[in-house]
Structures are given as structure tokens and as C-alpha cells.
Amino acid sequence: MSLNGRIAVVTGAAQGNGRACALVLAEAGADVALADLNTERLGAVAKEVEAMGRKAIVLNLDVSNTESVC
Which residue of 13, 30, 41, 60 is most buried, as measured by CB atoms within 10 A? Predict the structure, then answer.
């Protein structure tokens, strides 16, 4: 499945399943918005996404806190 031209938003993207999902989506062609509280690890994941030729944006936020997201 090609996700070229699509944008994916992945929460918990700094590690574990979130990181894995972000990389699979990027591999499929999506640009990825990476959300998590750990900005340092998000930066590393963003570099991995960009190494695949995709765009990545790092969003330091807590999705369990409405004020953090809105």
C-alpha cells in the first residue's frame, strides 16, 4: 500500500510501538507528525524518518491533556 502524499500523526512516537508505527508509515511513503513528551528521542525518530526521504515534524505534547493538544 502506498501512502505517498499522505500525512500520518503518530502519538507515543518516541519509542516502542509508536516509533515502529512511525517508521512503517514513513516506509510506505507518508510524511509523519511525531508526538510525544520525549523531544530528544522524537528527534532521533525524526532523523530516521527523514533518512527515508520523508518529512517529519516533532510535536512535544501530552495527548492525555486537552490543553496540550489544542
Answer: 13
According to the model, what pLDDT value does residue 25 have? 98
Structure confidence at residue 50 (pLDDT): 98
Q: Which residues of 33-64 are buried (b: 16+ CB within 10 A; e: fewer)?
A: bbbbeeeebbeebbebbeeeebebebbeeeee
CB–CB of 40/50 below 8 Å?
no
End-to-end CA distance of the chain: 31
Strand partners, 69: none
> 15, 38 in Cβ contact below 8 A?
yes
Q: How far apart are CA 21 and CA 68, in angstroms?
A: 22
